[in-house]
Amino acid sequence: MHDKTVAELSSALASGQVSSVELTQHFLDRIRQDDSRYNAFITVTEEAALKDARAADERRQQGDVTPWTGIPFAHKDLFCTNGVRTTCGSKMLENFVPPYDATVTSKLREAGAVCLGKTNMDEFAMGSSTESSYFGATTNPWGERRVPGGSSGGSAAAVAARLVPAATATDTGGSIRQPAALCGITGLKPTYGRISRYGMVAFASSLDQAGTMTRTAQDSAMMLNVMAGHDPKDSTSIDRAVPDYTAELDQPLKGLRIGLPREYFTAQLSAAMEQTVRNAIAEYEKLGATVQEISLPHANLAIAAYYVIAPAECSANLSRFDGARYGYRCDNPKDLLDMYTRTRAEGFGSEVKRRILVGTYALSAGYYDAYYLKAQKVRRLIQQDFIEAFGQVDIIMSPTSPSPAFVQGEKTNDPVTMYLEDIFTISTNLAGLPAMSVPAGMMDGLPVGLQMIGDYFSEARLLNAAHQFQQVTDWHQMTPAR
Amino acid sequence: MAISRNDIEKVALLARIKVDDDQVTALEKDLGNILDLVDQLKSADTSQTEPMAHPLDAVQRLRPDVVTESNQREAFQAIAPATENGLYLVPRVIE
Questions:
Q1: Same domain as A247, residue A320
Q2: What CA–CA distance (Å, rounded) separates A432 from A429?
Q3: pLDDT tens digits along A83-105
Q4: What is the distance between the terminal CA atoms of chain B, rounded to a whole angstrom?
Q5: Angstroms from A206 CA to nearest CA on chain B
Q6: Which of A92, A103, A129, A358 falls between 20 and 30 A from A333, CA-CA?
Q7: Which value does ipTM take for this structure?
Q8: Closest CA of chain A from B8, distance in Å
């Protein structure tokens, strides 16, 4: 049952082959038996899940059904869940129980989906390995001591290990695509503003975007159908009709124009990674796509621009954690300043503190123009590169990450080395474009992801291309050995 | 670009994060490396470029000035570290 996709489980539920209670119990049993090996979950909500599953089965009997009614899934632990603690992987929010639901939480709940728990992540979504979580690192189901990527490593590992058929995630610089690649699953980061950010614990507000982690593109399309849409509670969400993302999955790819940025296919890319990705692209050619080289001249500046903008926005967003209204407070503060400074020193981990300090520095008097304003200008240059490229091609393809899953501890001592993990994914967030990672091969027994970047609001096209690829390849069906 | 001990102490105070003396050396190195990375931005010619704050250059929408939220003070304060009579308690500010 756990090897079935969301689409298959949805049919099984519809035909009465299985009930939501049975399905929910099955996945809860898997989490209980296997998750000690992965640490993909921070919180498992067994009781609430079974209650929601019973309600879903009742809804079905009354004929009140959506494709998600009764389907188990998990939330990355930064989507607020009313009455269920939401930690963001941080000591700061270890005991934070939100008094409200994120819009994404409400939408999936209203569709009848059954949340089994909250998944592990890098603290406040800052990281590429899920090693900076206060609740311990997550392990990649594909290899002992291998990282699952990050920051949504818990969601990725849970889907890869078949502990849930789908999970929510977020992507600020690659946090959906890179872990999806490293865990051999399908990840989608939609256009900035496509999904409401209301109730998502904020990291860098102009870059953060929620998305999906599933095994297949079809499941991703089904999930985006539920999650997408304008929300008056998020002033940056886009007021634009939501199409049925499953409607175009079966379109043939004949004539699809694929662009390969020459700045991504350089001598620095390992020969094995390049070959794996080029083999995947050759499959697209067989499906009728044409391939051409393109240029993104400012690609080499994306990491630099990101590591000004993201820390600057993070330093502003995380100023809300003051020990006064919710979250952690230090013991016996002697005065207000002592309460703030010790609460934040004790409540945040080292990477979060580094980014807050970098951001505070970049925004401080005398440095604003040189850093933040300059980075925002470079951000526009990066966007213009993409706009120009999409005049020539429909989808840009590249590796998702420079290498497959690396060994735990390998990059934790050098922040800058860890930052380079997102070298292919970050510019998409700066431009606000939609992008996916799909399983596209294996290297030394570890999955490799193909990144596909589309023009604004072209999610249906990306999902169509990914789905067609998955009709002729079986990388997405590979299962890690237990 | 190098960042001095003094800079780090100043920024830590601005950010309201207590930094112990023995952490400053490591932060000098880490922040210095990050700022070196960021210094690549200088190579870009942005003399003709407008800064970009929102990927779709969207602007804030206005809504009618009417009350849409109910008062949930009790729910919000139930998760606070310390409250009394509907107020958030913090260490004494004025002697």
A1: no
A2: 5
A3: 999 999 999 999 999 999 999 99
A4: 43
A5: 6
A6: A358
A7: 0.95
A8: 8
